[in-house]
Structure formats: structure tokens, C-alpha cells
Amino acid sequence: MTDPRLIKTAEDIAHMRVACRLASEVLDELAEAIRPGVTTAEIDQLAAECMQRQGSVSATIGYQPPGYPPYPGHVCTSLNHVVCHGIPGPKALKKGDIINVDVTVIKDGYHGDTSRMFVVGGEKAGSILARRLVAMTFESMWRGIACVRPGAHLGDVGHAIQQFAEGNGFSVVREYCGHGLGRKFHEPPQVLHYGLPGTGMELQAGMMFTIEPMLNAGKRDISTLPDGWTVITRDRSLSAQWEHTVLVTENGVEVLTISDGCPPPPPEIAARLPQFAG
Ligand code: MF3
Ligand code: CO
Ligand code: CO
Known about the structure:
CATH topology: Creatine Amidinohydrolase
Largest sheet: 4 strands, antiparallel
Number of strands: 15
CATH superfamily: Creatinase/methionine aminopeptidase superfamily
CATH architecture: Alpha-Beta Complex
Strand content: 15-25%
Order of helices and strands: HHEEEEEHHEEEEEEEEEEH
Shape: globular
Number of domains: 1
Structural class: alpha+beta
Radius of gyration: 17 Å
CATH class: Alpha Beta
Bound molecules: 2-amino-4-trifluoromethylsulfanyl-butyric acid, cobalt (II) ion
């Protein structure tokens, strides 16, 4: 039997549509500010101001899972070889850097969670490798999203991501995964970004979770800095991550973390998803 707590109510879904759109809109606003010379602390401050205008609050500031110190940022800013949970600070962005900004807002008690990659100085500023990693991480996320429908298994999602990532010479980070969310920031199910088709939980309409693959240009191994949060690649290779929050619908999937400024899915995938086709 499926745990009934995994199925969201109509009320939950309505609130989550709002929270998720707001999270994506924070990224729309930050996108304009991400350029050479800007510090990650300045990005954090802009995010804080944007949330204040929205009437949302950051889910990350003060967030303290067991065994962690309280997280000090309104957003996570993960630069180059930082895999995730980078802490905003005085470091200035340079042309050609790649950065993930991960935004989680709480609105009316509900969490919207999404992240994007940016190439500092514009798409063409990045190295061939950096651009390829960013683009393929994006496509791996969308390939995972495209698997989501009632009757599919979470292993189908993980497999699609892993197959595409490894097939293109990148590695998949294993220690962090997508997650259920709603009134809580992190709740079941765990959504692994690797796996085998037909394994894992069977999806049902009303389930809601994030898909947020982290791909490394080198080996998949990671380490954590003494600050207790910042996760880096052990071999200091580049790492990229994208994240959306999704809802399993009767017919397939609804991506909730959508806004005017968020990049559309790759065309082959958009064509298969009613939300994005046409
Ligand atoms: N937003 C991250 C996620 O996708 C979690 C960040 S927790 C923090 O799950 F404390 F590092 F901010
Ligand atoms: Co998440
Ligand atoms: Co996130």
C-alpha cells in the first residue's frame, strides 16, 4: 500500500503552485545580476530583498538538519567545483565561471525549490567543457522529468538521468538526491539520480518531489568543507546542477517551478510534454 502522506491534497497543490512559481521568479530576477565582479553575498542579498517583496521567506537561512550547523544563506551559491550548498560570501564572480543558484522559498507554509546554472559573462564566456556540462546536466534533468507519470517507477527517472550523464562522459553524484516537499522542506520520497528501470517506488497522481541531478566533469566522489555545508568534487573538477519541483498528474507530469524567465525544456522533450508543447 502507498503511504497516504505521499499524496498531496488539492489544497496542498494550489499552495505549491504559488510557492514554486515564486521560487522560479526569484531566479528570474537574480539572472540579471549575475555578471563578472558581483559577489555571491550580493546575489544572496538581492534574493533576500526579492523574497521580502514577494511576501515569501527563505527556507534555507537557519536551516539545520541533524548534524549540520545552521545554514547561513538565503540561497545556495555553488561555484565551479562546488557541487551544492555553497555559502554566499565575498567571492566575486569571474567571466567564464559556472554557478548554480538554488532558491527555496516558503509561502503560506509551503516550500518551492528550484535551481539553475549560469555561465558568468554569458553563455559564450564558458569553456567548451563548462558549457557542455551545464547543457547536459539540464538535459539530464529534463529526461528524468519526462519519465514522470502514474505507473512509472522512481528507478526509471534515475536511470534516464544516469544513462544520459554517463553516456556523455559525466558522473552522477550519489550522496544527494531529489526529495518530496510541501509543508516540509525535505520529506519522502528520495529521488535518486541513478538506478534501474522498473525499480523503486511506483508513482501515483498527487505525488510531488524535486528532480535535481548533480553531474561532475570528473569522478563522482565528493567531500565537504570544514564549514559543514559546502560540498565539492574531490578531484576539483567542475560540477553542475539543475532543479525543478514536479507534480505527478493523472496524465503525466506538471512542472511547478516555472516562470517567464526559466529556460524551456529541450525541444524533443517539450514536444512530449503537454505543458510545454505548442
Ligand atoms: N535547496 C536544496 C535542495 O535542493 C537544499 C539546500 S539546504 C541548505 O534540497 F541549507 F543548504 F540551504
Ligand atoms: Co531540492
Ligand atoms: Co534546491
